[in-house]
Amino acid sequence: MNTEKVRCAIIGSGPGGYTAAIYASRAGLKPIVFTGSAPGGQITMTDKIDNFPGYPEGISGFGLMEDIKKQAERFNAEIRSESIVKVDFSKRPFTLCTENDNVILAESVIVSTGASARWLGLESENKFRGMGVSTCATCDGFFYRKKDVAVIGGGDTACSEALYLSSLCNKVYLVVRRDVLRASKVVQDTLMKKENIEILWQQKPLEILGDESGVTGLRLVSSVDEKQTDINVLGVFVAIGNIPNTEIFKGQLDLDESGYIITKGNTSYTNIAGVFAAGDVQDSRYKQAITAAGSGAKAAIDCERWLMENPLQ
Questions:
Q1: Disulfide: which of 26, 93, 133, 141 matches 128 by Cβ 3.0-4.6 Å?
Q2: Which residues are registered as beta bridge partners of 5?
Q3: DSSP string covering 26-55, please?
Q4: Residues 1, 100: Cα–Cα separation, whole Å
Q5: Looking at the domain covering 119-238, what would its CATH class be?
Q6: pLDDT tens for each residue of 224-252
Q7: Residue 309, SS3?
Q8: Any bridge partners for residue 219, and if so which?
Q9: Burial 257-284 (b: 16+ CB within 10 A, else e)
Q10: CATH 3.50.50.60: which residues of the chain?
Q11: What pLDDT was estimated at residue 80?
């Protein structure tokens, strides 16, 4: 077991973690980024990103993360493909334990562990992920202009995704497991007025259909009479929620009812002085690469200033 002291430890990568590393490195904090088991975060599964500034021809999620990572490394940020499995924020320096039984004593910590999309659990869902199956209409909706798509879910996220897609697509099927929507009334009222949105009530996805070119349809089964129905769609957007990756922080960092880290006001400060949060792990609203990157910059700036005001004795 090795013990190591660092000024700034960044837990998690992705747009938030890697951007925090750029800013922290330029500030001379010599950060170490612990990427965990999914370097770059869930955005690496996105086939093409057209809405991140600076890439007029678009770029893959993996390519974007590689570029930001290389930029962080240019300023001497250290990137480690280790997972942090346990933390102790009760006293400073903070103690972080890695999967390899190494101990990191950190003067400050930036948490950027992101959130994981909830999936349906279908084998065909994995097969066509990135080939017509997505969890982000804002990211991928553009590729389905004037085409028919399906959105799975009945909450605010699913309804908002359907509304966004209705302005781009020919037709949007909203597949709802129950006989009611869980979205807010104002969202439901807006949804019902859209002529190109059709709600398929009390239906469960059974299989995503497709071929070597990608998704071609969706097979549904009625929760009432178990009758199966196929609909022809070229895109399937799974919108059944996200799970913030905050399990190891429970009982130490303040979390909201959904498990997202609560930050103070318009800052990255958590309830523990010296611990900051960035990216989707503290953002249940926007969930975009660009907003995660912006919050990573904020976290590093907050961290730098806090360290200047609170040197470790």
A1: 133
A2: 105
A3: HTT---EEE-TTSTT-GGGG-S-B-SSTT-
A4: 8
A5: alpha beta
A6: 999 999 999 999 999 998 899 999 999 99
A7: helix
A8: 207, 230
A9: eebbbebeeeebbbebebbbbbbbbbbb
A10: 3-116+242-309, 119-238
A11: 96
pLDDT mean over 59-67: 93
Q: pLDDT band at residue 207, thresholds of 50, 70 and 90?
A: very high
12-40: average pLDDT: 95
Reading the block at residue 125, the tokens are 């869902």
- DSSP-assigned letters across all residues of 231-291: E--SEEEE-S-EEES-GGGTTTS-B-TTSPBP--TTS-B-SSTTEEE-GGGG-SS---HHH
Q: Which residues are catalytic?
A: 136, 139-140
Task: Report d(CA 299, CA 297) in Å as an integer.
Answer: 5
Return the SS3 of 10.
strand
At 39, is the pLDDT very low, low, confident or very high (cuts 50, 70, 90)?
A: confident
With CA atoms as reference, report the closest residue to 288 among 135, 169, 156. Answer: 135
Supply 42's token pair.
């869930």
The pLDDT confidence band at residue 156, using thresholds 50, 70 and 90, is confident
Tokens representing residue 160 in the block: 């908002």
Comparing C-alpha atoms, which of 94, 32, 112 is closest to residue 293?
112
Tell me the CATH architecture of domain 3-116+242-309. Answer: 3-Layer(bba) Sandwich (3.50)
Average model confidence (pLDDT) across the chain? 94
Q: Residue range 284-288: average pLDDT?
A: 86
